[in-house]
Amino acid sequence: MTGQQDSPQRSSFFGDNALKLGVFCLNVSGGMMLSGASKPTLDWDENVSVAKAADDAGWEFLLPIGRWRGHGGKYNANAEQYECFTWAAAMAALTQRIQVFATCHVPIYHPMLAAKLSATIDNISGGRFGLNIVSGWNAAEFGMFGIEQLPHDDRYLMSAEWLEIMESLWAKHGELDHQGRFYTVEKGYLEPKTVQQRPVIVAAGQSPAGLDFGITHADYCFVGSDNWDLLEQTMQRCKTHAAGLNRELNALTFCTVVVKDTEAEAKRYFEWYVDELGDLETAQRLANNIISGGAQALPPELVAKRARAYVAGWGALPLVGTAEQVAEQLARLSGLGIGGAALGWLDYTEGIDRFNAEVMPLLHQAGLRTDTRSLS
Fold this sequence. Notes:
The chain is α/β, with parallel strands linked by helices and 376 residues long. 43% of the residues lie in helices and 16% in strands.
């Protein structure tokens, strides 16, 4: 599947760079970390400046995370959030070439509404909108809407029907009638249509049902881990799963980044905000809920190991070291067959400025980037 337009692309997402770069979790307080070192409040001006810095440097995408409440605990990380569709609409109007995603929790947005929001933002952006589909996991958030989550595998069946309705609305003129297992639409109508044939779709989910949905319905699947060995194993498992569906795996991943003058300084900084100021207790609760779906029978050592990764950046792969070391790690990601990385920092402003100044030229030297805007 592809979201590419018939007309020449304005979006950087369809450029020639071998490794796509995105900004992740800019729309929530605390960003990717469960740490007392994170900024506790949102700053719209910072959101705009970081987005423009990415756009000006030729980055491919902006990806917000879907959150409706904080996580409680010592710091109540992510306690402030910008809603993803309205955030994406504003970002689309303020940028020129970067792909702007919205993260959408399927049970909260009826497909008629989600299709209309998507088409509107795609028109605002001139065909630069993308959709990150989340089938659901956070019972506390859905409870705010009076929504009871479906059994795990049924969530992905619901998402498939949801997307089918939206694709019909985007593509076909006239009215749409749909009677399915999860949705009924009577005389559904959508104008104007999307600028793209179909907005770019990404999805996460590494269970068999999640992979079935992502590989079959999305343009890119998020494949992530906090360590290299497991990431390599997960990539191989996902490639094998895709081959069983007669598909190729288009993979993105997500990373936290620390760039300092020396490796020792970078590691010390990472350990400071993770081990000294991290909210491990809250992370253990979240890790247990995410891994087990709320069951309480997981081995404590597994929960503890995963919890540290959630403190450090929602289980992301940490890229920590000098600019040269971070560039080498990004090259290693590309070597695994990963097409792009969504990145986050403890300090987004300092982080993207330093990345553009120090890491980006090295990615050019390695042949992973060809867009020269970041070097001007």
